[in-house]
Amino acid sequence: MEYGRRTTAAGDSPTSSISLDQPPPPAVILSPCAACKILRRRCGEKCVLAPYFPPTDPLKFAIAHRVFGASNIIKCLQELPEDQRADAVNSMVYEANARVRDPIYGCTGTICHLQNQIGELQAELAKAHAEIFNMQCQNSKLFEFISIRNVPENSPQAEMQQLPSFDENSSSNYFTDEANLELSNWETLWT
Hints:
Elements: E1 6-7, E2 28-29, H1 34-39, H2 58-68, H3 70-79, H4 82-101, H5 107-149, H6 156-162, H7 183-190
Antiparallel strand pairs: 1-2
Helix pairs in contact: 2-3, 2-4
């Protein structure tokens, strides 16, 4: 049997008549996976690499093979359950691409670069939030100042603004001034 050619059932020729009751048999194209093409070996039905390295994407296996080697890829895939193998292949191909771009750090260099960018962007965001808060405070002070200037002087609001405000740090304490308190009046209330 030759690879890459259409095969039909034995004894049938492509020109023989096909009955109308049965659909034509599907054409089977046998082609080795990209891994077996690169390794120049026969691709069997139970090839571990075939589901993950299709013949249409030989570069995917070539990069992973260059960094990890075929035997390590096969060994890794055989140790994993089938539902995790696709993720493992994607990780190996990503790491291999990163190693080709940066032979020293690989994907760790990419991760560090992205973490640095995140830190810089978080600092910029915090600075922008601080500027927004500062502008909001300035706007509220400006609105207070404008509203104070627009109040007529004979209105009750203007009189409230002229009253002295209570300051905790001031030396005059309105509540404990003994000259203003008559202790005799208070004593009769408590006895």
